[in-house]
Amino acid sequence: MKHPIIAPSLLAADFGNLERDVKMVEASEAHWHHIDVMDGLFVPNISYGMPVIQAIAKHATKPLDVHLMIVDPDRYIDTFAGLGAHNLTVHYEACTHLHRSLQHIHSAGMKTGVALNPHTPVEVLSEVLEEIDLVCLMSVNPGFGGQRFIPRTYEKIKALRALINDRGCNTHIEIDGGVTLENAASLLEAGADVLVAGSTVFRSENPTGTISRLASLSLP
């Protein structure tokens, strides 16, 4: 029986106790640390930069799943490789030459990720799908945590899974935004296999228990 990859979003952690929360994720059944980097330009919010990620990496042995919500992400690909990112996700909407960006990420020794905003159809990735290790479908508008899930995401997951299967790729489908204990199973049934959970984990009474419940779900 296969289970999903769970990637708690540190954007929802207590920044005053970030070391504690990173160690909680380390001790849990989670698989990755999801790290959202926002620049205040591509999205209206600003999160954290390189020094904070460097501090996180000191306490993390699980892979860092870094999601760049920034303009011109190519400028920082080598920097995030040096910080220890395992996956580096760039936005389709932020890359003028996406194929070149993906080649750069791979050459820097990281797995490639491409994020799509809610309004962007999955078909735009058709010509580069073989270069992508992970597609991050934004199920909320990027920039802020705690938003309500966009139901249309289910249809996008199904369409993307069909495209991946048709091409014979091993690309992961990651869902970022509004993932809860109530909708997680439906997301997996639609074809997702990586769940990013922020508020659901860090605002729960028992974060490790919540992670365990998500990790115990089965893939179809």
Keywords:
8-stranded parallel β-sheet; TIM Barrel; 220 residues; single chain
- Would you tell me the overall average pLDDT? 96
Give the C-level CATH assignment.
Alpha Beta
- Spatial strand sequence of the major β-sheet: 1-8-7-6-5-4-3-2
What would CATH call the homologous superfamily?
A: Aldolase class I
- Summarize the main sheet: 8 strands, parallel
Order of helices and strands: EHEHEHEHEEHEHEHH
The proportion of residues in beta strands is 15-25%
Rg over alpha carbons: 16 Å
Structural class: alpha/beta
Taking the alpha carbons of the first and last residues, their distance comes to 9 Å
Outline, from the CA principal axes?
A: globular
CATH topology: TIM Barrel
Q: Which spans of ≥5 residues are poorly predicted at pLDDT below 50?
A: none
Total DSSP helices: 8
The number of distinct structural domains comes to 1
How many β strands by DSSP? Answer: 8
Oligomer: single chain
Helix content: 25-40%
